[in-house]
């Protein structure tokens, strides 16, 4: 694709991708950009965010970055204000930022460590709540607002109880319960926003080749980030006939 720094016309969609400077977030930004979406990378590390934006622009995607730490309420508020000031709109929010400290700890982890639960919920759930609340006024101004919560089959209570599930043997309670909570948030928001132009859905991108699952995850995971980004983009770009309050992966609906 030809490199361009020409900003799309104002009728193009604008998307915020949290944790968008690497891994699945960056792949999602690239995928949305190929559809003409103006992408805003939200990231804590400004140096990495700038590098991600440069790479996206070299690939022909119009992208920019905002400093965004989903654990910091002031940072979230500032990012929302900057998006309004610089773009005047927001059509898509991808709540992608997440952590899995149970998989990256170097020592044995107490599965009932309250601090572990707090840190995990602070990012995976409360971070998504804070960002969504901050940008919701902008999404409601869109004629096709979309909220995509990046969840996991490991947050499916049905899947956790299914011996045939490939994730059945995994016991990471803080992460699993945080994604179950994110699924609950998805349903509640979809019900709250029924009758508006905003659709809210949760997606499972699969077991993705990123750093989220620890240093060995890239070699063990079967799904490249670019492939996993397809299901996220599908939810972000769905038309008016698409669902709201649903949970799905590349193969279709996922049980709650």
Report on the architecture of this protein.
The chain has 256 residues and is of the alpha/beta class. The protein has a single domain (14-253), classed as Rossmann fold (3-Layer(aba) Sandwich). The protein is built from 9 helices and 8 strands. It has helices at residues 23-33, 46-58, 73-87, 101-104, 114-141, 157-160, 173-192, 217-220, 225-237; strands at 14-18, 38-43, 63-67, 92-95, 146-150, 199-203, 247-249, 252-253. An 8-stranded mixed β-sheet has the order 3-2-1-4-5-6-7-8, sandwiched between helices. Helix 1 (23-33) links the parallel strand 1 and strand 2. The chain is globular. The termini are far apart. The model is unreliable at 1-6 (pLDDT under 50).
Largest sheet: 8 strands, mixed
Distance between the termini: 40 Å
Helix content: 40-55%
Structural class comes to: alpha/beta
Order of helices and strands: EHEHEHEHHEHHEHHEE
* Approximate strand percentage: 5-15%
Low-confidence stretches: 1-6
CATH architecture: 3-Layer(aba) Sandwich
Q: What is the CATH top level name? A: Alpha Beta
Rounded radius of gyration (Å): 17 Å
CATH superfamily: NAD(P)-binding Rossmann-like Domain
Domain count = 1
Question: Per the principal axes of the C-alpha atoms, what is the gross shape?
Answer: globular
Q: Would you give the CATH topology? A: Rossmann fold
The residue-averaged pLDDT reads 90
SS summary, helix count: 9
Strand order of the largest sheet: 3-2-1-4-5-6-7-8
């Amino acid at each position: 694709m030809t490199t361009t720094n020409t900003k799309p016309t104002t009728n193009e969609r604008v998307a915020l991708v949290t944790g968008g400077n690497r891994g699945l977030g960056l792949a999602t930004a690239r995928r949305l950009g190929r559809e003409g979406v103006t992408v805003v990378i939200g990231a804590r590390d400004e140096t990495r965010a700038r590098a991600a934006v440069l790479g996206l622009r070299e690939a022909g995607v119009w992208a920019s970055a905002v400093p965004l730490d989903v654990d910091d309420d002031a940072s979230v508020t500032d990012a929302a204000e900057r998006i309004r000031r610089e773009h005047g709109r927001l059509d898509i929010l991808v709540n992608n930022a997440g952590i899995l400290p149970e998989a990256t700890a170097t020592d044995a982890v107490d599965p009932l460590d309250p601090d572990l639960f707090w840190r995990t919920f602070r990012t995976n759930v409360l971070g998504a709540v804070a960002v969504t609340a901050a940008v919701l006024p902008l999404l409601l101004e869109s004629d096709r607002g979309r909220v995509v919560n990046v969840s996991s089959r490991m947050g499916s209570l049905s899947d956790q109880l299914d011996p045939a599930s490939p994730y059945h043997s995994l016991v990471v309670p803080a992460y699993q319960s945080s994604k179950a909570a994110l699924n609950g948030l998805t349903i509640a928001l979809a019900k709250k926003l029924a009758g508006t132009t905003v659709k809210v859905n949760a997606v499972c991108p699969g077991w993705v080749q990123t750093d989220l699952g620890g240093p060995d995850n890239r070699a063990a995971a079967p799904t490249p980030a670019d492939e996993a980004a397809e299901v996220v983009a599908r939810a972000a770009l769905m038309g008016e006939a698409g669902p709201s309050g649903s949970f799905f992966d590349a193969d279709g609906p996922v049980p709650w």
